[in-house]
Amino acid sequence: MASVNKVILIGNLGRDPEVRYTPSGAAVCNISLATTRNWKSREGGERQEETEWHRVVFYDRLAEIAGEYLKKGRPVYVEGRLKTRKWQDKEGRDQYTTEIIAEQMQLLGGRDSGGGDDFGGGGGGGYNRERSAPQGGGDDFGGGEARAPRAAAPRAPAPRPAPAPAQRPATGFDDMDDDIPF
């Protein structure tokens, strides 16, 4: 039977990222991410709030990007997987830590809101471990070897609109509403 280990979080950083390097030179970045759930109580209709804190770990190029662009309080979207580590404390007792190993990250918010990035207003930059150069219209970077930036492609003149298609007899499909919510 197949299994899935996928975590998606949207939250705010509780502190600035901590970046360190392994002896082999690989970057590792740890962040603490807060997610908050709000609801109204059944008894009095009072507003309730619950905050969960998540340990998120970034590796390689994604760790370097997280360390550079993430700051305390900024909103971020993270996709990854759960990983539980076993370690021993100073007294030799076994300890367990469950972390999210980040595979993708999206900076959220604009510059004015304290969140965001240096890539322009409004949106954020998306980053993942698989890609190492910008893809399409987004700001996707990732692990692996760094590549030289791509040169901007010259802009071609806008294409002329195609002539209107000839009128076809009504089949009934043309009268259907296209706003079907799937």
TrEMBL record:
PROSITE patterns: SSB. Residues 156-166 have a biased composition (Pro residues). Residues 111-127, 135-145 have a biased composition (Gly residues). A motif (Important for interaction with partner proteins) lies at residues 177-182. It comes from the Bacteria. Residues 108-182 are annotated as: Disordered. The keyword DNA damage applies. Keywords: DNA damage, DNA recombination, DNA repair, DNA replication, DNA-binding. GO terms for molecular function: DNA binding. Homotetramer. PANTHER family: SINGLE-STRANDED DNA-BINDING PROTEIN. Plays an important role in DNA replication, recombination and repair. Binds to ssDNA and to an array of partner proteins to recruit them to their sites of action during DNA metabolism. This is Single-stranded DNA-binding protein. It comes from Roseateles subflavus. The lineage of its organism: Bacteria, Pseudomonadati, Pseudomonadota, Betaproteobacteria, Burkholderiales. The gene is ssb.
